[in-house]
Design a protein that fits this description.
globular, binds flavin-adenine dinucleotide, 395 residues, alpha+beta, FAD/NAD(P)-binding domain
Length: 395
Amino acid sequence: MSHYDFVVIGAGVIGTSVAHHLAALGAKSVLVLERGTIGAGTTSQSSGLLRTHYSVRQNVELARSSWWAFNNFAEYVGDEEASCGLVKCGYMICAPEGDKLDPLRASLDAQRDMGIEVQLLGRDEARERLPIASFDAAALIGYEPEAGFADAYLVATSFAKSARRRGVKIIEGATVTGVIREGRRVVGVETTAGNFSCGTLISTQNIWTPELAGWIGVSLPVKPERHTVLALECDQGAYTFKMPAFKDLGSPGMLYFRSYGGSQMLVSEGVVGETLNAPETEQGDISLDYVAEVGAQVAERFPAYETAGLASSWTGVYDVTPDWNPVLGNVGDVEGLVVGFGFSGHGFKLSPGIGKLLAQHALGQPTDVSLAPYALDRFSTGALLVGKYGSGAVS
Ligand SMILES: Cc1cc2nc3c(=O)[nH]c(=O)nc-3n(C[C@H](O)[C@H](O)[C@H](O)COP(=O)(O)OP(=O)(O)OC[C@H]3O[C@@H](n4cnc5c(N)ncnc54)[C@H](O)[C@@H]3O)c2cc1C
């Protein structure tokens, strides 16, 4: 049986980031096993928004730890040709009078206390930045100039390329079917490409994490939830790359928006989606009634989009935990196992930081940011990381 010091299951943006960071931090023997192809899981379905705005303070810290990587991506992965497709358009978030107002104010204050550049905009200033939107109902508008969006698939494939350059072996088309244990310790994996022994196993399986739960006999609370993304086209209201990404806490779907391709609008809901019976990333049905319902909410905020057309649409699946925040670190008393799952629709923006933290943890090094708040046992102790905006991916 071949031996690797570290085996990573899954080559999404999290697994490839872990592999890159393990190698960058000096690990000499790393294997990544991927059932399909690099980045083709839920990573390829991402909307790619990057912001540090969160109502859970710990998440702000995690997002901040990733920001340098996105801003200096070529240098970060050590490849002058690498790009993460960053569009640094800024992020605007607004709330009307009502139950979202105080949480927004508190979250913006917390960001500023942490030294993050956040501006409060008047309605006219907001209109200057996003002239296609109406802000008549906005009671509070926050703006994060450093934010934007990038391409999750590009990031995953770039991390994979960097990892391979540093000696990591990545096998695609290899399914892990079980773990090999000696007492409480995980010592290897069974796969369709043969068995491998390892010092530490790192699972970054996203919606397929219940497979791991079955292998080790421990409950890992995560469910697959499907979400829909629409791209709308409107001759009178092009959404350009210069216009900020936008979160409308006042809309029933807590919609988020960004430019898509420099002229179209990408829009999706930030509330609970459709729970699936099994983890799968196949495309779901998008009914015309659903498009009309979201379209009406869009037109409420973007009047010219009353007559917009649907350019394209797709579905993607979130790995949702009970508090919509990830689980990072060890699993109970199981030794030789580290997990990173449950990103609940907001893991891309955290991926460089989380990859580094999980790599540091697996290597037995101190972590840049504490993993303690993200421990699995918070679901039994009740120390949940519940966001102030209710269930949804702002968190
Ligand atoms: C529609 C949508 C919009 C999103 N928008 C944003 C956003 O705007 N901003 C943001 O920050 N985040 C966003 N996210 C979330 C973000 O994209 C994800 O959190 C992130 O991509 C998850 O990466 P991952 O590596 O955990 O998962 P994946 O990319 O799903 O990777 C897991 C991999 O593990 C492999 N695997 C699983 N089990 C096995 C096994 N037994 N053997 C071998 N391989 C296995 C799978 O094949 C898969 O490739 C969005 C997600 C979706 C779906």
